[in-house]
Amino acid sequence: MALGKYQRVDGRKSSSYCSTGVVIAFVALCLVGVWMMTSPSVVPERNEISQDGKVDVGEIPTETKSRQFEDSQGDLPEDAMKGDSNNNSDQQDEGNSEVHDNQKASQQTTEETTEDNQGGKSEKDDGDKGAGSDETSNAQTDKGTGSDETSNAQTESNGGGEKTEETESNADSGETQTETGGHAEPVENPIETKKEEKVNEKVDENQEQQSENSSDNKKDSSDSSQGANEVFPDVAPAEILNETTTQNGSFSTQRAESKNEKEKHQSTESKEEDSTGYSWKVCNVTAGPDYIPCLDNVQALKKLRSTRHYEHRERHCPEEAPTCLVALPEGYKRPIEWPVSRDKIWYHNVPHTKLAAVKGHQNWVKVTGEYLTFPGGGTQFKYGASHYIEFLQDGVLDIAWGKQSRVILDVGCGVASFGGYLFDKDVLTMSLAPKDEHEAQVQFALERGIPAISAVMGTKRLPFPGNVFDAIHCARCRVPWHIEGGQLLLELNRMLRPGGYFLWSATPVYQKLPEDVEIWNAMTELTKKMCWELVTIKEDKVDLVGAAIYRKPLTNKCYESRQENDPPLCKESDDPNAAWNVSLQACMHKIPVDETARGSHWPEQWPLRLERPPYWLTSTQVGVYGKAAPEDFTSDYKHWKHVVTKSYLTGMGISWSKVRNVMDMRSIYGGFAAALKDLNVWVMNVVTIDSPDTLPIIYERGLFGMYHDWCESFSTYPRSYDLLHADHLFSKLKKRCNLVAVMAEVDRILRPEGKLIVRDNVEIINEIEKMAKSLHWEIRLTYSKDAEGLLCVQKTMWRPKEIETIASATA
Ligand SMILES: *[C@@H]1O[C@H](CO)[C@@H](O)[C@H](O)[C@H]1NC(C)=O
Ligand SMILES: *[C@@H]1O[C@H](CO)[C@@H](O)[C@H](O)[C@H]1NC(C)=O
Ligand SMILES: *[C@@H]1O[C@H](CO)[C@@H](O)[C@H](O)[C@H]1NC(C)=O
Ligand SMILES: *[C@@H]1O[C@H](CO)[C@@H](O)[C@H](O)[C@H]1NC(C)=O
Ligand SMILES: *[C@@H]1O[C@H](CO)[C@@H](O)[C@H](O)[C@H]1NC(C)=O
Ligand SMILES: *[C@@H]1O[C@H](CO)[C@@H](O)[C@H](O)[C@H]1NC(C)=O
């Protein structure tokens, strides 16, 4: 079924060829230009650095290291091409580099055509601005445990792709070779093939002539210097940033910080390999195409003794991470592009049959033909999120959206319209809401291209460091802040930056019903004891709502002058950054006051804070790559800017206008995300629990992310990201968990036609490539040099036919 759809879409493509071709020609010309200008600067001495890190970094004088770092010209194929023509004949290593081009130009075209169609069809949304009701965005009201959805697994299971991968790819590469000059040698000429790939990516039949010419050109230049591969050392500069200090650097790991953490999923078995590689199956689970393994563990939920604290919305990962693939919903289409997606998405991509019935009378979402449309309202801002955003800033000018307040947390976010409209203000919003049965609001948010995760304020700390959010917002989120010693509000207090604001927009602020008054009084008492200053109560005459704005203190003065130690200050040993599987503590951490401590000053204003090393990173600290921390930070920034501009943006055939939701699966300083700043994307930076804990740095520079262990499933819906970036992730994971399960998780998270970029050692690259092929993904680029490699693959609509029933996830 999925295949059929895909082909149908394919058949529609028609008129975009011409313009695409022109673009390609232009790009090709530019490339030649870049190539000519930059060739002389290619520095071949990179192999000193040894991409596999075998070379001891210590042997290389720091100066050399940093120079190489800055000089590294080629993280990408183009650079390789440049270098190639440059006769860098001092390096003659061949044979390690290979490039496979299995690319089908038509796929790319399909993608574009589909997009065009969507754009053309846009309907005017005429949503009225009527009031929503309370149910809309409350995080904590859903008590349902029923499972209404039936599995769609079977319906989705027939895919195409009967051919074995091996056959296909062999055929492809053979073809490529012939086309580009009939090389028969087993070792492909990387330059040439890459050029071919590059051109193929955007060129259709009409442009064949041109692409051949440019291939020829490239071939000529590569032929002229025997060592086509010799320039490739420049391609793997990631390794310059060798992480030397995981164990004894200045940053401890989230794992170490979270004392309770245990090694969980050690499972190495069940490779499910047959002679041809891997045999994938579609998950037969109650949640069907919306399966989130750690949130849909029906069996574990049944065993819960209590759900009073929303334990049933917390993570309960299956003993063994699933290796099956999640079904596609019937009628799934390529998601609508941002920013149109902020207002409407395909109904069939998030088919919640109860939605229309249950929420039909509300205004935050409507079913409009094939679309779900979002009139831009929420329960708390029926006149639009933009108005509401201004309203809050009018309350406290200091909020200064996009300057002073850059990274905020939205609790109980509903469909995240608030976060969606804050993009207009250069504000990045981490939205969270618990998984709910009837309408998956977080799924809507992600489908709209707005960041969100499934999480609940329950019994565990949220997976964020302490003192990182510039502001925290909650609009009718219905979290019972005031009960149980204010435990949940104290969790917000942990995450809120000293001097940061809590924006509480809820009925107790402006309604006088007895229940509201009671809550208001309790909140007033609690926030006083917590030393939060009530800055203002702002009423909105238009929306007829009100917001109370509190501020977390900047010093410990108030704490010290309290009559009672209630809520208590946390023990000195309690690490505010420990947040992975750590139970909530009803206590407050002291405000850091040391000049060099994080949290003692507000960060620089955005966007300056993106590029400046935080003031609290001192030269005496050793960074992740072994240099002094600030230097390390700057190197990382330059490195990723280089890689992204030279390679990812232009060299991989990725249409970035179609990319919106991005995840860096193993982020260090957030350099990759920082390099994408000017694009219309947002990046979820994941700091893995056994990496140095650099997440506070990521927040300090105005980016966001969370802790995670990739041996488990991520708390997001299937098909929610357009691009995943895995820099030396899989090699580290392989020691602890089953890579097949990790790949199944990558498949789950990635939207069809979404891309995965992997940088890792060659064995891992080969293994991932093999798995990707067995998943019927398109291999867009593989490149390797010495022991390091780069891989870019694209997920397809393919789903296996076989079914695997996951006992833990079936009711
Ligand atoms: C970094 O270098 C060490 C040896 O100094 C090596 O063991 C390690 O694998 C290298 N790391 C990477 C990511 O290449
Ligand atoms: C490459 O080297 C050869 C011989 O060493 C020389 O003839 C040729 O001009 C060089 N090409 C470039 C682009 O430098
Ligand atoms: C491609 O090369 C052929 C001959 O090799 C030439 O006739 C044609 O004009 C070239 N096309 C372009 C676009 O350069
Ligand atoms: C890490 O510690 C080991 C021994 O404890 C030491 O030999 C090594 O130099 C340290 N590395 C760094 C980068 O500090
Ligand atoms: C899917 O799982 C359910 C519940 O265990 C089972 O009844 C059904 O037969 C399974 N379907 C397939 C195709 O295996
Ligand atoms: C979390 O920690 C508890 C012990 O505090 C442990 O029993 C549980 O298995 C852990 N869960 C996960 C997912 O790590």
UniProtKB/TrEMBL annotation:
Q: CDD domains of this UniProt entry?
A: AdoMet_MTases (cd02440)
Question: Is Magnesium a UniProt keyword of this protein?
Answer: no
Residue ranges spanning the membrane: these are: 21-38
Q: Where in the cell is it found?
A: Endomembrane system; Membrane
The main location class comes to membrane
The UniProt entry, under InterPro entries, shows:
Put_SAM_MeTrfase (IPR004159), SAM-dependent_MTases_sf (IPR029063)
Superkingdom of origin: Eukaryota
Gene Ontology cellular-component terms for this entry are: endosome; membrane; trans-Golgi network
Sequence ranges of Basic and acidic residues compositional bias = 47-70, 121-132, 191-205, 256-274
Q: Where is this region: Disordered?
A: 47-276
Q: Which GO terms describe its biological process?
A: methylation
Q: How does it sit in the membrane?
A: Single-pass membrane protein; Single-pass type II membrane protein
Q: What GO molecular functions are on record for this protein?
A: methyltransferase activity
- Record family assignment: Belongs to the methyltransferase superfamily.
Q: Provide the protein name.
A: Methyltransferase
**Species of the source:** Papaver somniferum (Opium poppy)
